Amino acid sequence: MALTRHLRRAHTERTTVTLAEAFTDDPETAAIQAIQSGRRTYAKPLSIIIPTYNEERFLPDLLESLKHQTYIEFEVIVADNHSTDHTRSIALSSGARVVEGGLPARGRNNGAKVANGEWLLFLDADVILPPDFVEKAMAEIKLSDCSTVSCLMHPLTDRQIDKVLHTVVNAYFRATRKVKPHAPGFCIFSKKETHELMGGFDEKIKFAEDHDYAARASKISGFDLLQSVRIPVSTRRLDKEGRLGISIKYLAAEMYLIVVGPIYTNLFEYKLGCYDKDS
C-alpha cells in the first residue's frame, strides 16, 4: 500500500510525513495537498497519556516514576473520567495536563487530540516504570520500522501463580504478534500521525479495544513488541476478580475476537479504576 510505504519511509528516514504526503499516490485524496502544506512539527518527542477514574491511590506512584525517568523529553496528559476523589488535583499538582476522559478508548483519544508529541505513549494509572524504561523504549523505537509498538509485562508481585500467568500471556503475545497482534492498553507507543490516520481507538468497542487498535495499526505501518523493556503491571484486577475467573473471561474474549471479531456488546464486563490499592 502506498500509505504503508510512505509512513515507513518517513519513520526510517527520521522525517515526518503529513497526511497529504501519505496519500500522494491516491488521486481521490489529492485535494488534501491543497489544505496541508509543509512538514508537520512537534513540540515534544513524546506525549504520555493516562486515562483515569478514581485513581488517587495508584496514580501518584506512576507520576513519581515518570519524574525519575532518565529520558525527560515528554509531556504528561491525564484524561480523567470525572473522578470523585483527588485524582485530578494529584495530576495537576504533578504538572500534568488534565483533559476530559471517559472509558479508556475515549480517554486515550481525548488525550491524543491535545498531545504535542510526535509519539504517544498510552499507560494505565496502575503501572510503575523503571527509571530507564522510556529511554530504552525510545532508543529501540528509533531502530524499528514500525510506528506502533507495545511490550511484554511482568507482575508487581512475588506470587508464583501470577508469574506463571504473565509468562503464558507473554508467550502468546509474542507468538501471535505478526498474525494477530495484541497490545495491552497499559502500554502502547504509537506515532501520533498513525493514530490519527486510523481514527484512534474505536470508542464503540466495549472490551479489548487495545487489541483492535494494534491489529489496525499493523495494517497501516506495522506493529511489533519491544525487546529492550518489560512493563511492571499491577495485579489488582487479578486480586479482585480472582485468577481463575479472569483467566476464563480473557480466554473467552480471545475466542470471541477470533471467531466473531471486535466486541461491541457488554458481554465481558470491564470497569475503569474500580479497585483499591489494598485489594
Q: Mind explaining what this structure looks like?
A:
This protein has 279 residues and is an alpha/beta fold. It has a single domain, classed as Spore Coat Polysaccharide Biosynthesis Protein SpsA, Chain A, CATH 3.90.550. It is 41% helix and 18% strand. The chain is built from twelve helices and seven strands. It has helices spanning 2-12, 19-22, 32-35, 59-67, 87-93, 104-114, 133-142, 160-176, 192-197, 209-221, 236-241, 243-259; strands at 44-52, 74-80, 97-100, 117-123, 148-155, 187-191, 223-233. Strands 3-2-1-4-6-5-7 form a seven-stranded mixed beta sheet, sandwiched between helices. α5 links the parallel β2 and β3. The longest helix has 17 residues, at 160-176. The N and C termini lie far apart (48 Å). Residues 10-38 have low confidence and may be disordered.
Walk me through the topology.
Layout: H1 2-12, H2 19-22, H3 32-35, E1 44-52, H4 59-67, E2 74-80, H5 87-93, E3 97-100, H6 104-114, E4 117-123, H7 133-142, E5 148-155, H8 160-176, E6 187-191, H9 192-197, H10 209-221, E7 223-233, H11 236-241, H12 243-259
Top keywords for this entry?
seven-stranded mixed β-sheet; 279 residues; single chain; 7 strands; 18% strand; alpha/beta
